[in-house]
Amino acid sequence: MPRTVIPFGPQHPVLPEPIHLALVVEDELVVEARPSVSFVHRGLERMVEVKDYVEFVYVAERICGICSFIHGQTYCQAIEKIMNVPVPPRALYLRTLWGELSRMHSHLLWLGLMADAVGFESLFMHSWRVREAVLNIIEATTGGRVIFGTCKIGGVRRDIPNERLQQMLGELDSIEKDTREITNVFLNNRSVAGRLRGVGVLSRQDAHELGCVGPTLRASGVAQDMRQLGYAAFGDLPVEPITRNEGDSYARCDVRCAELFQSIGIIRQAIARMPDGALDTKVTGNPNGEFIARTEQPRGEVVYHIKANGARNLQRFRVRTPTFANLPALLKLLPGCQLADVPVLVLTIDPCISCTER
Amino acid sequence: MTERQTLELITVETLLERVKTLHTQGYRLAQIGAANVPGYLEVNYSFAREECLLTLRLQLAGEEPCVPSVSHIYWCAVLYENEMHDLFRLKVEGMAVDFQGKFYQMAVPYPFGSRKAPVAKPAPEPRPAKPAVPARAAAELAVTA
Q: Which residues of B touch A38 (CB under 8 A)?
């Protein structure tokens, strides 16, 4: 049968971000996918040559517009580890709280896009309505909606008064109720299930071999979550990874939906156990050493490799984003699928090309 | 759970054997990254298993460094290896999938490929002080405004 190459992206109605896939098809069957990235590559890793290690927190936060806070947090954790800076407990709890709010707004954003991709446009709007409530909390507590700017080396810049934390509990109740409603509608819809069940199955063995991370990995039955390493306040607030065993597109969606409620639970626990005290520790001197920090972003494990030699500027800054780790799985899932399933499969790994184009 | 990190300096000759051993022991490939260090190109292979993170480090001297591909052991390494080729001009022999330099389609070929040590941007020159505005001219400006 003759083969045709269909360009998919970097601009495509279902793609929120610019990745390009050259899809080799036989009739409607995909037989090969060749990716290319770099349409918006920013070369941020080399910016350490011009920005010093303190200024670089702002650069790290701007790697991504969705999980910006966790990028800044991971960078700060690596520097704090190199410089042996003790972070006050209240700052660790606040970081945890803002990190989980980030995860919630990222998953709700994804849920809307996913619903839209399968033709469920009203759910897209409801999902983003609920996300707006999360963004309002973020704006009220940090002053920003996309870039929080609250994390710094040694702690955090802003506090959340205890009265505001109590008010947040009421807002979380309302968000939980709305989220329960829309996730129930999405996951129990016959058309959605028919579109996702049994599509793009990734076995447990393949998910591990292909280096998958985050919900993509957990949907194949591997209980791996970097929050179990105990960074920030996760030493006090244990996290049990949410897993499914089916490994198909529906399982990946189901894991993300369940993680929304897990995040709400973590925020409630963090508020209940929020310690009083200082927000930051004074940091002096320059970092000298090397550390690889790993945290759990909404899309999975992010790896920050930082190397410093005692100068004001870092020697090396390298980020491996979760989307980059999930791309090999996508390249293995696409061959053999129907052309119409490509957008669905791409969205089930929740790609963030902005992160990948750091 | 407390994370344990280990760094191991290896040579190109022992790379494949060491990676095969880690694969047998159930390690997951967490990342591969290159860095230009004065005098050589550094390549780090990080592997994770539970709370352990093990990094194998290669230090490659010369203008045209070359490493064997580990993608026949960990297939997912193809993206990291193509990335190192496209950004750092590192030759990787025997990749399971070679995108022929088209994975990163950059306006500048090999943007991180210079073997020279990175040079930090010098601090900007202090701005010259503004000349003081004579009192009469300042009064005229205020009236105009």
A: 86, 103-106
Interchain contact A320–B (C-beta under 8 A): yes
A38 touches chain B (CB under 8 A): yes
Distance CA A61, CA A104 (A): 17
Q: What is the structure's pLDDT at B142?
A: 62
First CA to last CA distance, chain A = 40
Task: Tell me how far CA of residue A122 lies from CA of A12, A113, A114, A260, in angstroms.
Answer: 21, 11, 12, 20
CA atoms within a 13 Å half-sphere pointing along the CA-CB vector of B107: 5
Class of domain A43-325: mainly alpha
What is the structure's pLDDT at A164?
Answer: 94
Q: Chain A residues with CB inside 8 Å of B75's CB?
A: 209-210, 328, 332
- What residue ranges do the domains of chain A occupy? 43-325
**Whether ipTM exceeds 0.90:** no
Report the distance separating Cα A267 and Cα A263, nearest Å. 6
Residues of A in contact with B28 (CB under 8 A): 208, 211
Q: CB–CB of B105 and A316 under 8 A?
A: no
- The whole-number pLDDT of residue A18 equals 81
Distance CA A231, CA B1 (A): 9
Q: Is A42 on the interface with B (CB under 8 A)?
A: no
Is residue B71 pLDDT above 90, yes or no?
yes
pLDDT at residue A14, rounded to an integer: 74
Query: What average pLDDT does this structure show over A239-251?
Result: 93
CATH class for the domain made up of B4-115: alpha beta
- What's the gap in Å between the CA of A100 and the closest CA on chain B? 20
pLDDT at B128 over 80: no
Instruction: For residue B140, give the amino acid letter.
Output: E
Q: Could you give the CA distance from residue B36 to residue B38 in angstroms, rounded to a whole number? A: 7
- CB distance A292–B53 less than 8 Å? yes
Contact B103 A50 (CB under 8 A): no
